[in-house]
Amino acid sequence: MLTYNQMVVYELSDTAVDRIFQALADSTRRDIIERTLRHEQSVSDLAKHYEMSFAAVQKHVAVLERAMLVTKERRGREQIVHGNSEALRRAKELLDAYEQIWHERAIRIGEILSEPEKDKNK
Amino acid sequence: MTLTLSHKDVENLTLTFTTEFAASVDRVWQVWEDPRQLERWWGPPTVPATFTKLEFSPEGDARYFMTMPDGSRAYGWWRILAVHAPHRLEFEDGFSDDSGEPVDSTDFATCAVTLETVENGTRMTLVNTFKSAEQLDEMMKMGMEEGMAEALGQIDAILAESSVSR
């Protein structure tokens, strides 16, 4: 059963996961992710899409960067933002794993239900 | 055959899971209401669940533990929010300490179960809502353990079956 406990280790720490979900909780930030997944964009280009200050957009980008949902690189005077599809995939993996638990439970319930009625000794 | 369908809402930390069983609503309700049946499916064969308490009424409590393959126990609790037999059950599910009591009674995931009659039996819909990503991550870790245990259990079963050669 050695491998059993080793399976528990997961790439993301609790704080990292929390950051991802907090980052995703805002519609502007989700929009930024969507745009930067399609094409890399500078922070100033992004700012044109929203009715908020450049500083506010920069702040949203910083939240996304901390959650590792986007990466930022400096190119001359511009800050270029890229979406990180890998991090988003990991967030979805959490829900996938929980779904798997229920899938297995449903199979076991199905097995119990297919037994003859005599089994319920209530 | 079990048909399943699920919907994940990452932003709202919600998992909706739907499945159908070829049995009556009353029969499916029993697998929830009867602790002896419940513990046969709540955990996989290698991490069986034991319900030491199951009060199937509004504001009722449940206490259970899962026995890990190494013999250690992971404790959990439910608080029943609503029971409308045989169609609706809602409860909170959280972690307990080694004495079996909640670690933090405000830290729980919510599960709403709906059973309805369909043409070929019963449709069961579950809506699981998590409070935080951290909590979901904890559950996920348990899920990975369960998944692993399940896989090991299936291998055991296959080995046992082939040695008997039915």
From TrEMBL, chain B:
Gene3D superfamilies: 3.30.530.20. Residues 23-159 form the Activator of Hsp90 ATPase homologue 1/2-like C-terminal domain. SUPFAM superfamilies: Bet v1-like (SSF55961). Pfam families: AHSA1 (PF08327). InterPro entries: ASHA1/2-like_C, START-like_dom_sf. Belongs to the AHA1 family. This is SRPBCC domain-containing protein. It comes from Mycetocola zhadangensis.
